[in-house]
Design goal:
CATH superfamily: P-loop containing nucleotide triphosphate hydrolases
CATH topology: Rossmann fold
Shape: globular
Number of domains: 1
CATH class: Alpha Beta
Order of helices and strands: EHEHEEHHEHHEHHEHEH
Number of helices: 10
Length: 279
């Protein structure tokens, strides 16, 4: 049986490495039931074990740099159907994706990874600074007659492009040659979901409110992308003080939170299964 292959996309510090660490622990430890089980691993288990150990200890998971990227493929098995699924982490370093946006180039191997009809896990984070402030947003702060301090002019550069614009660009690339344009499933993973204040909206509502450009792009390109949005807290909360102490007392796999349509509360593999199921 040919395995269905899915790929990760995400900018720097969007939660990809922490997600990988949590998922590796989840399927290796067997502390909670998962819809997918481990078939085999292709890649460097040393790196996986190191980041999973840091994750279990509630330590900051070290993010990978371009110089130390490692291709890792987790091969899953859907035990009830016998279906085989592969989740590829080809570029753990988000700088590779930033490079695509800024330099308009990518390696041939990256294009080849999207040669199949597999889905995409698109990562972004809820734990971020203000993204794309408009004049309307700033108006309340500058009203009145008080003189404003002079702002030093800074030349525009590609690194100033807002997060959601970059993500739209990464998806637009997949609609143009040399990529093969097909209908792909996209699971939008909002990491650091625990920082979203109560009452929490649904992940889809959050995306529509906080990143309207990305949400509108996905909705407006239904011929290319079939998407769902998930909120994920792979760590479970802040890794300092009393919060860290409380997390260490919990069953590690139960620290994981996964919110979204048909998602199991602690089961990250349910996202991967949705990417695979027939439309």
């Amino acid at each position: 049986m040919t395995a269905i292959r899915h790929t990760i996309i995400g900018l720097p510090r969007s939660g990809k490495t922490t997600f990988l660490a949590a998922m590796w622990h989840l399927i290796d430890a067997g502390e909670v039931d998962t819809v997918l089980v481990l078939d085999r691993l292709a890649g460097d288990s040393t790196h996986l074990n190191e980041i999973a150990l840091a994750w279990r200890r509630c330590e900051e998971v070290q993010h990978t740099s371009i110089a130390s990227e490692a291709n890792v493929s987790i091969h899953f098995l859907h035990s009830s159907s016998g279906m085989k699924i592969v989740l590829e982490f080809p570029d753990l370093d988000g700088e590779s994706f930033s490079w695509q946006v800024e330099k308009r180039t990518c390696p041939t191997a990256y294009v080849e990874r999207f040669g199949s009809d597999g889905g995409i896990l698109l990562f972004l984070t809820a734990d971020r600074g203000l993204d794309g402030i408009t004049i309307i947003d700033l108006a309340p702060a500058v009203e009145g007659d008080e003189p404003q301090a002079a702002v030093k002019h800074k030349e525009w550069e590609p690194g100033m492009v807002p997060q959601q614009v970059r993500l739209v660009e990464l998806l637009q690339f997949l609609q143009m040659p040399p990529f093969r344009r097909v209908l792909r499933r996209v699971a939008v993973v909002i990491s650091a979901w625990d920082v979203v204040q109560a009452p929490q909206p649904s992940p889809d509502e959050w995306l529509k409110r906080e990143m309207p450009l990305l949400h509108q792009f996905l909705e407006g390109n239904a011929g290319s992308f079939d998407f769902r949005v998930y909120g994920v807290s792979a760590q479970g909360g802040p890794l300092t003080g009393a919060s860290r102490d409380a997390l260490l007392k919990r069953v590690a796999s139960e620290r994981i939170t996964c919110v979204g349509l048909d998602a199991r509360p602690h089961d990250l593999t349910s996202i991967v299964l949705w990417l695979t199921q027939e439309r």
